[in-house]
Amino acid sequence: MRQSRAFIPTLKESPADAEVASHRLLVRAGFLRKVASGIYDFLPLGMAVLHRIMTIIREEMSAAGAQEVLLPILQPRELWEESGRWNRYGEEMMRLKDRSGREFGLGPTHEEMITDLVRSNTSSYRDLPLNLYQIGPKYRDELRPRFGLLRGREFLMKDGYSFDRDEEGMLESYRAMYEAYGRIFTRCGCTWRAVEADTGLIGGDVSHEFMVPADIGEAQIAYCDSCQYAANLEKAEYRREAPRGPHPEMEPEEVHTPGKRTIEEVSEFLGLEPHLMVKCLMYLVEDRPVAVLVPGEREVNETKLARALGTDTFRLFTPEDWERFPRYLQGFVGPVGLEEARILADAALRGAADLACGANRADHHLLHVSPERDFRVDVYHDLGSALEGDGCPRCAEGKLRREAGIEVGQIFQLKTKYSLPLRAFYRDERGESRPMVMGTYGIGVSRLMAAVVEQHHDDRGMIWPEEVAPADLHILPLDWSREELRDEAEALYREARGRGLQVLLDDRDERAGSKFADADLIGIPWRAVIGREFLQSGKLELQSRRGGERFLLQRGELLDRLCRTGRPGSAA
To answer: Do 370 and 142 meet the contact criterion of CB atoms below 8 Å apart?
Structure first.
């Protein structure tokens, strides 16, 4: 590709709405352009990266036995009603009607579509196992699109689906995809971590997310510093120890706490550690008040709370709710004497004693309170978020650490969640009808592109890993008007392409400083500089964008290094 003819509209300034490096750099370097909130055009360099990522995905999927298909974006309402998800999916699904009034959704995911395809064309145990995938656009009407490609409304996704005869076969398919995903992210140049995850709207019993650690990641990961345990914070467990104060035998005592409402204020006023306090939060669950209790130092994990309640139709009390239910005093609500509301408590409070809590009276709290003795608990459940330094739930020695990450993939053990309602059955060896056992496997392809940039950039621009870079070599003749430099650049361009390399030739009549600035911004791994050294010695300068190494080489030597197995700058 010749840069003078290439559509690479670089910018000197970052877009005003760019909050993260990947968004800022991909737009500045001419890989992307914004169309609307959460919707982007992919320009030629962006497409080159996407094609290389998709090539890696296709190679690894083929090696794992998966076959590629392409399913429609428009999905009929009837299929989603069969699975029960048409109403459950909510406002994230973009919906429309055709001229006949028939309703469709723009596919946010394709479990219904693929299950319909397989049930209509597969009937015997001899046809299984089956593993199908596609790469195509998905649509989700995000409430707050942000961070460029990391949270958009239209995005490119690889979604795959396995169909097996039994759970044992499904587990084998799941293992194969788990391993293939690890190879994909490694080949894309990412450091990554697989973590246990909540199944959310996709459903199923077991799920793993593949996280790329990054400071700007919206997901929080808890992992053990001694064993392999790792989980999304929505799912993370921790080793619990029931908090117990020094006077468990004492009866509750009401104390005056004027104007002290928060855990921090009350614990400082009373001289108590926050873990010796009961945090009582009021939720409205399907229009009924529910009290949720956690140790004072913890937050309620609402994903865990949804599992405990069996519904996601709930919210924290609003100002209107506090007025509607004056029995509950904001800032002083506590579980003692709370007879009207259902009470859910974090499992850490089972067996706790000698705690402090709100007294349900303005400016007052209770000391020496113990669950079960002084107030009832209707349900104990894992409700609290794991904290840095918590004990690992899987090993005796480990402590939990937390880090931010970008989710780039997720896999699910669906079992029969879709095959039963959609009647995806097969006949076994005895002729008996059985439901297929499913798994589903997704990679955010465009999100992965952004995640690579988040892990591979500096203050000058992007630093693409070699296997996903938009080109292998960037040729920079520093004075295009000089015939000898121009001729050498053209010869190198021809020979490099003849060896199968992807090449960007900067044939613009620009200053050397501008060429270097654009080369740094675009971030192709290797550049061949043709300038003063060539005029003096006939050698080209091969430069590494990542490490800054420089090698003076003849043209043939330079190409040999680039085409050799391993990094071009490695020893012969």
So the answer is: no
- Rounded distance between C-alpha atoms, residue 99 and residue 97, angstroms: 7
CA distance 321 to 327: 11
Rounded Cα–Cα distance for residues 154 and 151 (Å): 9
DSSP codes of every residue in 262-311: SHHHHHHHHT--GGGBEEEEEEEETTEEEEEEEETT--B-HHHHHHHHT-
What per-residue confidence (pLDDT) applies to 205?
76
Q: What's the rounded mean pLDDT across residues 483-492? A: 96
Q: What is the largest CA-CA distance in the chain?
A: 95
pLDDT per residue as tens digits for the range 18-48: 999 999 999 999 999 999 999 999 999 999 9
Burial zone of 181 (CB within 10 Å; 0-12 exposed, 13-18 middle, 19+ buried): buried
Q: How far is CA 349 from CA 250, 296, 353, 404, in A?
A: 18, 11, 8, 28
What is the Cα–Cα distance from 310 to 304, expressed in whole angstroms?
10
* pLDDT the model gives residue 479: 94
For 171, list phi and psi in degrees, rounded to 5.
Answer: -65, -35
Mean pLDDT value across the chain: 94
Strand (E) positions, 103-260? Answer: 103-106, 130-139, 154-164, 193-196, 206-213, 219-224, 230-232, 253-256
CB-based contacts of 173: which residues, under 8 Å, 6+ apart?
129, 131, 162, 164, 439
pLDDT per position as a tens digit, 390-433 = 999 999 899 999 999 999 999 999 999 999 999 999 999 999 99
Residue 132 CA to chain centroid, in angstroms? Answer: 22
568 band by pLDDT with thresholds 50, 70 and 90:
very low
189: left (phi over 0), alpha (psi -120 to 50) or beta: left
CA quadruple 388, 389, 393, 395: dihedral, nearest 10: 130
Distance, CA of 498 to CA of 76 (rounded, Å): 48
| CA dihedral over 58, 64, 70, 74, signed as positive or negative | negative
Cα(54)–Cα(135) distance, integer angstroms: 8
Q: What is the arrangement of strands in the sheet containing 103-106, beginning at the earlier edge strand?
A: 74-76, 103-106, 94-97
pLDDT at 90 (0 to 100): 84
Give residue-wise pLDDT tens across range 173-217: 999 999 999 999 999 999 999 999 987 766 677 899 999 999 999
Mean pLDDT of 77-97: 93
Strand pairing of 473-477 and 526-530?
A: parallel
Q: Which of 545, 539, 478 is closest to 505 using CA atoms?
A: 478
Domains of the chain listed by start with CATH number: 21-215+411-453 (3.30.930.10), 253-381 (3.90.960.10), 471-563 (3.40.50.800)
Which pLDDT score, from 0 to 100, does residue 200 have?
72
The structure's pTM equals 0.89
Of 318, 356, 286, 301, nearest to 328 by C-alpha is: 318
Q: 103: how many CB neighbours lie within 10 A of its CB?
A: 15
Determine which helix (DSSP H) or strand (DSSP E) holds 52, and give its type and residue range: helix 44-63
Q: Residue 203: what pLDDT?
A: 65
* C-alpha to C-alpha distance for 339 and 244, rounded to whole angstroms: 24
Phi and psi (nearest 5°) for 365?
-135, 165
